[in-house]
User: What shape does this take?
Amino acid sequence: MNFNITVLPGDGIGPEIIEQAIKVIKAIGENFNHEFKLSYGMVGATAIDKCGNPYPEETHQLCLEADAILFGAIGDPKYDNNPKAKVRPEQGLLEMRKRLGLFANIRPLVCYPSLIEKSPLKKEIIEGVDFVCLRELTGGIYFGKPQGRSKDGKTAFDTCVYSVDEIIRIMKLGFEMAGKRKKKLTLVDKANVLESSRLWREVAQEMSKDYPDIQLEHMFVDNAAMQIIQWPKQFDVMVTENMFGDILSDESSVISGSLGILPSASVGDQHSLFEPIHGSYPQAAGKNIANPVATILSAALMLEYALSLNTEAALINEAVENSIKEGVVSEELSGDGKSFGTKEIGSWITNYIKKH
Ligand code: IPM
Ligand code: MN
Assistant: This one.
């Protein structure tokens, strides 16, 4: 079959990790007789440098035309330390999410047996962990208006806004996802303080009548932050608003041993984008030390969710699991052992695919 993929390498380590995922996709294409037509677009600080806009119109067009979007990373320290910067790379990512309607961010968390020793958490706590963090991605305090400063500049404000419709569409995905898994949905919020959280609860409870086989549970976000570390096995699907999801999914990544192996999918009704959870890791850019696994697994998620190529995705997952088992890992995971470079890990996984 033929597929159009828009590839957005972005900033920092983005281009080098994307390159590895592309090697993998090409190998899948050869093995299974698919043609992946790749179109590259600019995004982030790289795009600001070239044309002053972190999400140029051409890039948006490429995204609209694609069957799926594969994204590297965004961000540059020259903006992080300058709160007065007029344009920021992150605006590109937020604008892209909003304009493409990518309202749900799916972040699967599993404990790989071969990495169990790498997690700072105890083996008994994380063994067998398998849950999904489902984060609302186009609403809440990230996008709410008003946002800004008072006239005298002495006060700043952000607003958390959610509509019933926004809550319904993400909760629906949560109920459906839980239905295909262990049938438990945990809504994380701060309903003891925030009105927007109370609306989430109200809507969720009303909807749960239509999903009698799903156990809906409520948890305050402060408690959830603790439970993720203390007893992560209790979770199946955790659904939450934009900023809580941002924070809790980073926290959850310690279960897997490294942020460098966690993929994510951002999906909407019409478009979908796949990206590693980690950022642009500028200190590592160009050094061939970054872990390409999160991006390679994001490509696997893309094949599965956007292109319905389940066998192909399973082969990528198998190749990655084997690479980890064989110790073909980057420095953050190798400990005292031998570490492998970005390209070498990409090639190992690609060769595994070619041979199977
Ligand atoms: C993420 C990132 C982004 C976010 C930043 C880069 C804007 O942290 O995808 O989790 O906060 O959503
Ligand atoms: Mn984040």
Summary: Residues 14-32 form the longest helix (19 residues). The longest strand covers residues 2-10.
